[in-house]
Design a protein that fits this description.
Strand content: 25-35%
CATH superfamily of the largest domain: Vaccinia Virus protein VP39
CATH class of the largest domain: Alpha Beta
Radius of gyration: 18 Å
CATH architecture of the largest domain: 3-Layer(aba) Sandwich
Largest sheet: 7 strands, mixed
Number of helices: 8
Order of helices and strands: HHEHEHEEHEHEEEEHEHE
Length: 245
């Protein structure tokens, strides 16, 4: 997987319209409905902590994991002096916690789609199962095949902002697989613009493939929600999975 590099500096501004509050509300509602303990949460692919930090109000101990050191630096800067969250720089597919030590694990905002190889996805899910306490919960969401092939295929967006502008082009590489090319133009102190490029690679699998991998990881109960059922996306754009150990 690729880290977000310099993209981290502009990620929050770029995602300013993302419905983070609904993601947080969905996790909270699932945790409360299941009445699971709220001692320890691990947020894999936590980015700049926009979701992780509010969830620290629900859980006593919170750990955020991300491959990008730049993202984690920004996340740490967001914390108040009263807040304590442990940030770990790591690839989620290689992250292993002590067996039965975690109450809830989240992988949100299609972060799991950055794990390209299906074997690595399986490893990630298996590691999550082992880390969860009995009755623990894994919550994650992914892009649907429809989004990859109907929205991202030859997608192009150009945005001119006050401090930076960007061009975002996406290209489908194969079944469920997409590459995002992002070119940023950032104004410097001299008034000139500096260009830098980011390349992001994502892959999703069918709902049945995910269910098979979840079951093979050991989870006994799997609930799925379409994006429109969660209430903050168009139908069939994103799939949510809630898995119980």
């Amino acid at each position: 997987m690729l880290s977000y590099g310099q993209f981290a500096k502009f990620y929050d501004e770029l995602m300013a319209d993302a419905p983070y509050e609904q993601w947080i509300a969905f996790v909270q509602s699932q945790v409360e409905q299941a009445a699971i303990p709220t001692e320890t949460l691990v947020d894999l692919g936590c980015g700049t902590g926009t979701i992780t930090i509010p969830l620290a109000e629900l859980f006593t101990n919170v750990i955020g994991v991300d491959l990008s050191a730049e993202m984690l630096t920004i996340a740490q800067e967001k914390l108040t002096t009263q807040q304590q969250i442990q940030w770990i720089e790591a690839d989620m597919s290689e992250m292993v916690f002590a067996n039965e030590s975690v109450d809830c694990i989240t992988i949100l905002c299609d972060s799991l789609n950055y794990v390209i190889d299906q074997e690595d996805v399986q490893t990630t899910l298996t590691n999550c199962y082992r880390a969860l306490k009995p009755g623990g919960m894994l919550i994650f969401d992914v892009h649907t095949m429809t989004k990859i092939h109907e929205v991202f295929d030859d997608f192009s967006e150009n945005v001119i902002g006050e401090d930076f502008s960007y061009i975002w082009n996406s290209f489908v590489l194969g079944e469920g697989e997409v590459e995002h090319e992002l070119t940023f133009f950032v104004e410097t102190d001299s008034g000139l613009y500096q260009r830098f490029d980011e390349l992001h690679h994502q892959k999703t699998y069918s709902e049945e493939d995910y269910k098979t991998m979840i079951s093979e990881s050991g989870f006994s109960k799997i609930c799925t929600y379409d994006s429109h059922e969660v209430g903050f996306f168009e139908p069939n754009m994103r799939k949510f999975f809630v898995c119980r150990k």
